[in-house]
Amino acid sequence: MRSLDPAWVRSRFPALSQEIDGRIPVFFDGPGGSQVPGSVIEAMARYLISSNANAHGAFATSRRTDKCIASARTAAGDLLGCEPYEVVFGANMTTLTFALSRAIGRELNPGDEILVTRLDHYANVSPWKVLEDEVGAVVRVVDFHPEDCTLDMENLKRKINAKTRVVAIGYASNAVGTINDVAAVVRLAHAVGAWVFVDAVHYAAHGPIDVYALDCDFLACSAYKFYGPHVGVLYGKQEHLTRLRPCKVLPAPDEVPSRWETGTLNHEGLAGLTATVDYLAELGQHISPSGSRRGALVAALEASRRYERVLCEQLITGLLKIPGLSVYGITDPARFAWRTPTVAVRLAGKKTDAVAQELGERGIFTWHGNFYAQGITEKLDVEADGGFLRIGLLAYNTGEEIERLLRTLREIAVAV
């Protein structure tokens, strides 16, 4: 098995070689949205040129669109480890989660409980909170340990009970990088008969997903976080997608999974999603030749995880040496299997937006704020003061880029 070759990876991404204000930029903004391979751009353009029509028509371009949708379902199934008919497409994870939560709400009675976590993006909190007003459900919040931003599993065990109907859990925190033990949460939830909804938006770029091995009931992600276009993807166990009643217009199909897809899908986005999965499979074939696309995808994401872990150790080791800079989340390299290379920091004496602006002016792109994970910034008492500066690494980033960031942050720290 070969190691990931960052030069090969970077050669697939046209955006990485562009100049902005005379510099080659460093994209550490991946948790907010990754760059895309040229093959994805070409696939989307090719669809719009040769196949642009609505679905289910009796003519050539419409039949091509039907094939495009079917190919995207198969690709997403290969990525997640499920059958194509268990894949639902939508505008984004947030929209899909609101649709699903309302359908689940029809199954709940007043007093039924839903668990969410303080580590999560609010796309996996707010859709469940609305059920308090709509059906009288009780939403309970699982806490996290502030010293390392890991989920408090004992708190979860105390709060899960016979009234629990849904546990909504993030696979990984988009703010501080923590990876949760989702398999353990699923076992605890299923022991009391509760469903588990997994937000895998942040995790999907950083490791392989096997929904059958997890045994989760639902899992959602967004292609634009793992090198693709803006398309939301939802996995649901077939029996749930069949039994639950989604909100839909009367003439729309009633079969699974189409009954969950409101309105016309983003067909060019689905063409891009298929091309994204094919890019990852191509990477996997370079790492470890496989007879199946699923095998190649697992190889690609395992290699990405190994490569990113090395980068993460380089980044955090360097950050911890900068005077006045605080790193949030897991910082012990021995525990990096439980974090993604997404790192939240604060620099004493500087507002996070000011640091992000200084970095941006020097061609280093990062995010600042709460990243819709407001429960974390409130718990850590940084919400009112601008939240975090977030540095997010992906498989197209390099050690040289990290050194450039560290040098710049040291200069900014000295100037405080």
Structural class comes to alpha/beta
In spatial order, strands of the major sheet run: 2-10-9-8-7-3-4
What is the residue-mean pLDDT, rounded to a whole number? Answer: 97
Distance between the termini: 46 Å
Binned, the helix content reads 40-55%
What's this, in brief?
41% of the residues lie in helices and 15% in strands. The chain has 416 residues and is of the alpha/beta class.
Set out the fold topology:
Layout: H1 6-11, E1 26-27, H2 38-50, H3 60-80, E2 87-90, H4 93-105, E3 113-117, H5 126-135, E4 138-142, E5 144-145, E6 150-151, H6 153-159, E7 164-170, H7 182-191, E8 195-199, H8 211-214, E9 218-222, E10 232-236, H9 238-243, H10 267-287, H11 293-319, E11 325-328, E12 342-347, H12 352-361, E13 364-365, E14 367-369, H13 374-379, E15 388-392, H14 399-414
Parallel strand pairs: 1-13, 3-4, 3-7, 7-8, 8-9
Antiparallel strand pairs: 2-10, 5-6, 9-10, 11-12, 12-15, 14-15
Helix pairs in contact: 2-10, 3-10, 4-5, 10-11, 11-14
What would you say this structure looks like, in words?
The chain is of the alpha/beta class and 416 residues long. Helix content is 41%, strand content 15%. The chain has 14 helices and 15 strands.
Describe the structure using short key phrases:
14 helices; 15% strand; globular; alpha/beta; 416 residues; four-stranded antiparallel β-sheet; seven-stranded mixed β-sheet
